[in-house]
Amino acid sequence: MSGWLSALATALDPLCGPVGIFTLLAGDGLVSCGASGWGDEIAFGVKVTVTLAIATLPIGLLLGFLIALAAQSEDKLLRAAVGIYTTIFRGLPELLTLFIVYYGLQLLIQSILGWMGIEQRIEINAFLAGMIALAVVFSSYASEVLLSAFRAIPRGQYEAGDALGLHRSRTMALVILPQLIRIALPGLGNLWMILLKDTAYVSIIGLSDIVRQTSVAARVSKEAFFFYFLACLLYLALAIISSFGLSFIERWSRRGEVRR
C-alpha cells in the first residue's frame, strides 16, 4: 500500500513528476531532476515548506480560538494570562521565538532528565520545533482576529440560542461558529500568507525547506542569483495558489448572502 502511495505521489509531483515543471522545462540544466541537477532537492524543499505550513495551521487556529474565548472570560486572571501570552509572542521576532523553542526545549528536557538522574543529550526535531514556534506566533495574531470577529456578533444571538433551549456549546457550534468563520476569514487568510513566508525561518535550524535547499544549491553551484530567484518564484507560486484557494473558500462561506 505504501509503495502504491509513493508511486502516486511521484506521478503527481508538480515539479519532478512525469509532467512536472522541472521535468518538462529544465532539460539537463541546474534544476533538472535526477543526479545531474538540483530539481529533486528543491522539490523536496517545497514539500517540506507546504507540509510545515499545513501542519501548523490547525494547531495555530485551535490555540487562537481558545485564547479568543479566554479573552472574553469573566475570570480576570485568565484574561491577564492570555493578554501576556499575546503580548509576548506578538512582540518577539519570529526567529527569536524559534530559537527559544528549539534550544530552550532541549535545555528544559535535559534539565528535567538530569534532575531525574538521567544523563542523556536531547535534540528536538527541527520540524516539530518549527511547527511549535510558528503555531504560537500564529495563534497570538489569530486570537486577535477571532476576538474581533466574536465582538462583531451581536450578543442577542447567544440569548436567542438560550431561548430556544440550546446548550451554549450547541449555540456556539450551530449559530456562532459559521458567522465567526465568515467574519474572520479575510484576516485569517492574511495570516496564512504570513505563515507561509515565515516557514523560511526553519532553514536556520537545519530543516530542508525551500530556502535551505536553494541555499545549498547556490553555494555548491556558484549560481546564487539563479537559485534565490527560483526560491522567490516558488514562494510567489505558493502565494498565488493560496490566493485562489482563499477566494474560493470566501465565496463558499458567503454563499447564503449571494442567494439573498
Produce a short descriptive summary.
With 260 residues, the protein is mainly α.
Summarize the structure in words:
The chain crosses the membrane at residues 42-69, 95-118, 124-150, 171-195, 225-249. This protein is mostly helical and 260 residues long. The radius of gyration is 22 Å and the shape is flat. It contains eleven helices and no strands. It has helices at residues 2-11, 21-25, 39-71, 76-91, 94-115, 126-152, 156-163, 168-198, 210-221, 224-253, 255-259. The protein has two domains: 1-36, no CATH class; 42-252, MetI-like (MetI-like fold), CATH 1.10.3720. The mean pLDDT is 84. Helix content is 77%, strand content 0%.
How much beta, percentage-wise?
A: under 5%
Radius of gyration: 22 Å
SSE pattern, N- to C-terminal: HHHHHHHHHHH
What would CATH call the homologous superfamily of the largest domain?
A: MetI-like
Protein name: ABC transporter, membrane spanning protein (Amino acid)
Keywords: Cell inner membrane, Cell membrane, Membrane, Transmembrane, Transmembrane helix, Transport
Family: Belongs to the binding-protein-dependent transport system permease family. HisMQ subfamily.
InterPro entries: AA_ABC_transptr_permease_3TM, ABC_transp_permease_HisMQ, MetI-like, MetI-like_sf
